[in-house]
Amino acid sequence: MNKELLRIEGLKTYFDTWAGIVKAVDGVDIEVIEGETLGLVGESGSGKSVTALSIMRIVPSPGKIIEGKIIYKEENLLEKSEKALREIRGKEIAYIFQDPSTSLNPVLTIADQLLEVILAHQEISKKEALEKAIELLKLVEIPDPDVKIWNYPHQLSGGMKQRIAIARAIASQPNLLLADEPTTNLDVTIQAQILELMQNLRKRLGMAMILITHDMGVVADIADRITVLYAGRVCESADTKTIFYKAKHPYTQALLTAVPSLALRTDKLKVIPGNIPNLIEPPSGCRFHPRCEYAIEKCTEKIPELIEIEPGHKVACFRALEINLESPLGGAKNN
Amino acid sequence: MQKILRELIQEKNKTKGASQWNIAWRRFKKNKTALAGFFIIGIIIFMAAFDSLIAPYGPNTIPGFYSGETRAPPSSKYLFGTDYVGHDVFSQVVYGASSALFVGFAAALIVMLLATVVGVVAGFYGGIVDNILMRITEIFLVIPFLLILLVFLKVITALAPSGGGGLFMVTLMIGIFSWAANARIIRGEVLRVKEQEYIEAATALGATKTRIMIRHILPNVLHVIIVLTTLMIATAILVEAGISFLGFGDPNAITWGQQLQKASEAVKEAWWEGVFPGLFITLLVLGFTLLGNGLRDSLDPRLRE
User: Fold this and answer.
1) Domain span including residue A304
2) Complex ipTM, two decimals?
3) To pair with A200 at 20 to 30 A between CA atoms, which of A102, A182, B61, B254?
């Protein structure tokens, strides 16, 4: 059960822009176990999406994967040829984009878009593929699938389009689903429906999923484990309960405090002071130190390593064990 | 209230199953000037298709020559009058339609094939491929188009024993020398489309580069290609008329440009000799331009009312 599906080691993805080299992802370590949902959390610009795009090796130009390993099923994806990768993209690992109105081709019908993936990875006739496509639409709970399949994307609503995008991603029953903020552009009620659908499909098809989001509420609902990114590095990684109740990294703590919550009954929402740092010349030492209330001199000099402080709970902070953070959710008593 | 509701429902039913082409067609039908262009082109195509039935005299007959009616003014016998050797101008105009259409369509086909291949490949692959293709394109853009065309036609006519390839050679030359501007426009459009997320999504689903180019990029730039094609047809017809007028055309073909040239010797005495072929050149070019503009308005996916 606890078989490792994907392991990223020391991934560095840089963007060589005219302003300088943007170190969007700078030494990220992530593991995904078969069949689990990993929440990848962080502010905008923390490198969540770039990490996911790096797994598929579809980082847009001028982005380049500088070093690191991406081990999928014991094979390093970074050493694979472009041709071998095509066999993995869509078939083994699938990607769901943030905005379904731009990730579906406007001039092709739903049938065209689904058939394209099905026929690319499975050797079946067009007729069988069409039947399969209608099955997929049923699976993602689209009403009248045999009518809707002949529609164009602009004729469907946002939620419906995201369902189509999900159908397209699961068409070849991938083992790993990368969902890049799949509900950010949908309104709240649709959001809940889509998340529930994804969770159900994941369980039914036995897929693992990396859910990228900045919404702590979303990951609380459906993630088994959470990895928190900040400025291109991992801060903390643990199971969901630990992150929410026994977080050891000041940044994780700050993120949780910044979530509006009915349980807290505070008048003012706490925010994290400052912005995410410039990734061309990131702060020395721990990248969070300029915004961290617990920072000491050592934090400005050395980069903290990601250390396993308990089984399955990794933190990259020198003071993780001494500062004894209290969860804003009143964690300790829940244990 | 009821009425508005009913109209809304009707409108909704109309939208059902509407592809981009359906929407475009609906918009096109509302565009009166584009329909006028379509109508003009239809008439001239009809003229070309049934030329021997419409023209009262054969293409190479000179009815006015024997009866001494050269440069005779328009009459019931000669609708548009006769020219300097006694050709019936109306018949000549009718026979000229197929030449004009042939040059227009064939040259535009050559141009658009070249421009699309160059534009799509350069835009999609970018980098060194783009660099090389665009520098070649620029060479074609900076050479004085008409001058080089005339030189080439002259050389080919001189080299070939039978006086060159005639109208086809003229068409081929127009095609070879006018694709560059269109290639640049198509490249620009490809650059825009290839940054769209659905292209990234197609890559993420395991599509090959060729597939992305043909299946995802080409359909998304097709509206530009269609518009450029119609406008190119108009340009090619004008250029051919210009070449013929300057006396570099195919002497064996009946073209409106050549009729203009012959007429230019006697504009004052026999205005009908030039006005009618000139009128038809103008009409046909106007037709394609109106159609092109109308298509641009109705095909642009960004202009959705």
Assistant:
1) 247-335
2) 0.81
3) A102
Contact B81, B92 (CB under 8 A): no
Question: CA A197, CA A188: separation in Å to the nearest integer?
Answer: 14
Rounded to an integer, what is the distance from CA A62 to the centroid of its chain? 21
Domain presence at residue A94: no
Q: How far is B19 from chain A (nearest CA, A)?
A: 6
Query: Is residue A313 within a helix (H) or strand (E), and if so which, with residue range?
Result: strand A313-315
Q: Is the peptide bond before A273 cis (omega within 30 degrees of 0)?
A: no
CB contacts < 8 A, A to B, total: 79
Structure tokens at B146: 């008409």
Residues of A in contact with B205 (CB under 8 A): 89-90, 94-95, 116-117, 120, 168-169
* CA-CA-CA-CA torsion sign (A96, A101, A102, A108): positive
The whole-angstrom separation of Cα A92 and Cα A99 is 22
DSSP code string of A3-15: -EEEEEEEEEEEE
- pTM of the shown model: 0.81
Helix (H, G, I), strand (E, B), or coil: what is residue B208? coil
Which stretch of A25-34, A94-103, B32-41, B61-70 has the lowest confidence by average pLDDT?
A: B61-70
Residue ranges of chain B whose CB lies within 8 Å of a chain A CB: 15, 17-20, 196-198, 200-208, 211, 215-216, 219-220, 222, 301
The answer to whether A56 faces chain B, any CB pair under 8 Å, is yes
Q: Give the model's pLDDT for residue A93.
A: 93
Burial of B277-298, coded b for 16+ CB within 10 Å and e otherwise, reads bbebbeebbbbbbbbbbbbbbb
Per-residue pLDDT for A310 more than 50?
yes
Quote the CA–CA distance of A234 and A251 in Å, as a whole number.
11
Distance from CA of A19 to the nearest CA of B (A): 20
Contacts of A144 (CB under 8 A, 6+ apart): none
Asked if residue A84 belongs to a domain, the reply is no
Other beta carbons within 10 Å of A275: 11
Instruction: Give bridge partners of residue A94 from the DSSP assignment.
Output: A177
Structural domains of chain B, with CATH: 28-299 (1.10.3720.10)
